[in-house]
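Summary for the steering committee. The consortium agreed at its last meeting that each partner would contribute one worked example illustrating the joint modelling workflow. Our contribution is presented below. We chose a case with several input lines so that the handling of multiple components could be demonstrated. No manual editing was applied between input and output; the record is shown as generated.
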Amino acid sequence: MAGKAKKARAGLWWAIIALAVVTVYLIALLSAEKQPVVMSLIALGIVSALAAGWFGVLQNVARDFSEHEDRTGLFAIVAALMIAAWFHEDHFVLLLIITVLLTTVATLGLNIQFGYAGVLNFAGASFFGIGAYTSAVLNTTAMPHLLVLLLGGLLAATIGSVLLLPVLRTRGHYAALITIAFALLFKTFLEVNDVLGGPQGMQVKGMNLFGWSFNDNIEIGGITLSFYMSYYVLSLALLIAAFVLVRRLERSWIGLNLDALRLDEIAAGCFGLDITRWKITAFLIGNFLIGLAGALFGMVGGFVAPNNYTFADSLILVSILLLGGIGNPWGLIVATLIVVVVPEKLQTIQEYRFLLYALMVIGVLLFRPEGLLPRPVRRYFPGWRP
Amino acid sequence: MTALLEARGVVRRFGGVVALDGLDLVVQPNEIVGLIGPNGSGKTTFFNIVTGIYGANAGSITFDRADITNAPSRAVYRAGITRTFQRSRLSLPLSIFDNIMIGNHTRLDQGLWFNLMRRDAFRKQFEDSYTAARALIDVFEPELSDRMFEPVANLPMIDRRRIEICRALISEPKLLLLDEPSAGMTHDETAELMDDIMLVRERNKNLTIIIVEHEMGVIERITDRCIVLNFGRKIAEGPYRTVAADPQVQEAYLGTA
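What follows is the complete predicted structure of the assembly.
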């Protein structure tokens, strides 16, 4: 018994050390300004990740994360708050991390749809946009802004249900084509619609929670915190909630249903599964999460325009999913960090970032088809032993 | 005695091919019926029509006094019919436990609120299901019961068959349809598997089985009665020894001299 407990504690160290190293690395990367420094840091990151994988360190870390997820999750939250504290004055870096947090929430939504239910959604950015436009329109009214967030999610789910009928009647590539059509239609609709600002877009009023405006800098005992700090905390809270939701969904009979219907619809039907019901559930919950993230991101950015929600942006969301490891929420966080932060820091590749994404996706599909962090076999309760 | 499963004049055409040509078939409760016949005689098609994978072009099927003609697969399962597939249809990336639980669908609480929010109640149901699945797989292969959370993809064919049969048995169906359980296995493995199935049936006397099989040793040993199909029609019916001696059956298998 004592030996087991010791082993468990010894196991946790891998996760703690890994999180500490990643935190320090991220702080270094995010503070680096000079291009040579950024490039060498990125090279260092790639080499150490490969080395860690080669020497089996990554395996130990992954095992810890899956066996003691509640505690490692807590440490990850502490790490995220430490990074925020380090950059408490830096608007740009905080905005960048908020982008990572909210993009991860959106990909978690896509993950429910594609990773679990097998419904490929190439209109992720459109549903994100529906959330953002909801904020733009409703923040001018007296409606409480938390309610606006919720409505952003609900509206994305509702508009998404227009797609349900065609998506349910088609399979695989054909269902994906329908979502592509929707993405193109959505952007055109925004461009020609004067009420929603047309191609110029609209301003979004900042978040105001019980009289506390998120768009003012915060002063505590002589220390000035960037106004993005409030958004950061809220975005982190949203990510935690989405993460817990996705985890619980996966580790339940519903997660099992979704896997079963993705892998073999006919066999699943022969064992009583209501395929339609679960596909609809996954599609709606997924779009709800994407819309929610979009609604908050609209308020963070203060501005929405059709060009922010193009088909190309949807492709980025899907490529994060492929890169991270379909079905693994931790992998999605890592992949979003890579896809959002690297092009932002590496100014020289800004213009070529789509080329970079394409290369990354091709590389992953060729050499590691299950993604950077492949999804482990389902454990309903981490660390549970019969 | 009322029949458990009764098919009347079932017709199924695929384009110009008539797979089932007015099939009449009656299965009594607690029977083990062998469904035999040459390749393409319509055995698997019959299973697929019963389980709602295909629709019937004509005819009717009643199960347990309810009409299940052209009922969707999941209604057929709810009525108490489960099956295995000729070519294994397990979900390979999922664990042994997950695959068996797919077969336990109606007994698991499917509510969103239950699954997401009531984690303690869920845990209880999970632990009970684990015990049940383990007890079932212990009958087939005790070694597998210690590997419940390993992906099925790592396992050899015989273990996959065992899991597929466990998936079909966990919900304690009234009727089990076995579609060529011996496919891809050696003679000894098949014999072992059949003994295990008989063991499960010892405990659950109400289980009726229809088995499609080419291995005649299996059919002879376990069935009470055989139904022989040829070109989608029933050509003979009776105990194995009788139908095997039937000249019409010999002709169907061997051709005319």
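Residues 1-8 of chain A have pLDDT under 50 and may be disordered. The first helix of chain A runs from residue 2 to 31.
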